[in-house]
Specification:
single chain, about 130 residues, alpha+beta, two-stranded antiparallel sheet, about 60% helix, elongated
C-alpha cells in the first residue's frame, strides 16, 4: 500500500515537472510572437524611417528575445539583377559575441519597453520621399 502511494506521488511530481517545462516553453514562444508582432507593426509605422525599421528588425531577430540568431544581413536590390548588403548586425567571431552578451545580459524588461528602446536608439528621421 505504501509502495502504491509512493508511485502515485512520483507520477504526480513528474507530471508537475513536465507541466512546468511545457509552460516555460509556451511562455518563451508567446514572448517570441510578441516581439515579432511588434516588429511587424513597426514595418508599417509612417513616422519611422526605413533605416530605423530595418535596424530594429535585424537587432530584434538576433536578440535572445527574438529568433536568437547570432547575426543577420538585409540584402536590398541595387539593380534588377544585383543585391547589396545594406544593413547587418552581429559579430564575425563567437568570442566577440559572447563578450558582448556577458556585458549585456537579457533583462526582465517588458517587451514593449525593450522594443521602444531599440527604436529610440536607431531612430533616424524619415526621408522626405517616404
Amino acid at each position: 500500500m505504501l509502495l502504491g502511494f509512493l508511485r502515485n506521488v512520483s507520477r504526480a511530481l513528474m507530471s508537475k515537472h513536465r507541466f512546468r517545462d511545457l509552460l516555460g516553453r509556451t511562455s518563451q514562444r508567446v514572448e517570441l510572437l510578441r516581439v515579432l508582432d511588434r516588429i511587424n507593426t513597426l514595418l508599417h509605422d509612417p513616422e519611422l524611417s526605413e533605416e530605423t525599421v530595418w535596424r530594429v528588425m535585424l537587432e530584434g531577430v538576433t536578440h535572445g528575445r527574438g529568433l536568437g540568431f547570432n547575426r543577420a544581413v538585409l540584402f536590398t536590390p541595387d539593380t534588377p539583377r544585383q543585391l547589396v548588403a545594406n544593413y547587418a548586425v552581429g559579430y564575425a567571431h563567437k568570442a566577440a559575441a559572447e563578450a558582448y552578451w556577458q556585458l549585456h545580459p537579457l533583462t526582465e524588461q517588458p517587451t514593449d519597453e525593450w522594443i521602444n528602446g531599440l527604436v529610440e536608439r536607431h531612430r533616424q528621421p524619415p526621408s522626405p520621399a517616404g
